Amino acid sequence: MCRTILCAAATLLAVAIVQPATADDYAVCLHKGGDEAIAACTRILTLEPDDPTPYANRGIAYYRKGDSKQAMADLNEAIRLDPEFADAYQGRGKVHQGNRDYDLAIVDFGRAIRLDPKKFSAYHNRGFAYDAKGDYDRAIADFDQAIRLDPKSNVTYFSRAVAYYNKGDFDRAIADFDQMVRLDPNVARVYDNRGAAYYRKGDYDHAIADANKAIRLDPKLLSPKSVAAKPTRPRMISTTRALTTRRR
Length: 248
Description:
Layout: H1 5-18, H2 20-31, H3 34-47, H4 52-65, H5 68-81, H6 86-98, H7 102-115, H8 120-133, H9 136-149, H10 154-167, H11 170-183, H12 188-201, H13 204-217, H14 224-228, H15 239-247
Helix pairs in contact: 1-2, 2-3, 3-4, 4-5, 4-6, 5-6, 6-7, 6-8, 7-8, 8-9, 8-10, 9-10, 10-11, 11-12, 12-13
């Protein structure tokens, strides 16, 4: 059973001697996505039906295609074959999260963390699930740990900023958006959302400055479709929507 790239590479070499086509299938199953990965993983499983890795990778490919039912079936099978497969729990947690089954997602992310305590993505995803449930303190604790494991993860600073924002701690939200600007000063949504935090604080000068910066980076933020769209994260309003409403 192969749960690591090194293990898969060794299997790939062994298979290449006997069946050259399968070597390509393993590379595609491990590193690609979509129908190409699904087909490659399926071919591998006809030869190695007890290998959990192709089930897990195929499950993730199905999940990314929006087929949560088939994704869940494959990830369940991967876990049945190897109950200590951290990536499979992580993948199943993402499927639960996509289905808004946040409690089940939290359980699976927790299992992944127990099996691999340095798994950055499991902390981040569990934090996202806690945030969606409104448990902002636990969300922030998980984002803290994810940032300790990867201090340059822009996406985790954004997620923690959202949790602080949802909690009403706008100063800390702004501080995390500031860190994102230091890591990458050219992301429109950072200014857009930092401006939202300034707006909620009543600091309209900074809110307008950030809105203007966001619009310069992405003029589509002021399109009617963008203004009418739902927020991309729970309860996070955009500055452009707030200012549009304020000007009416």
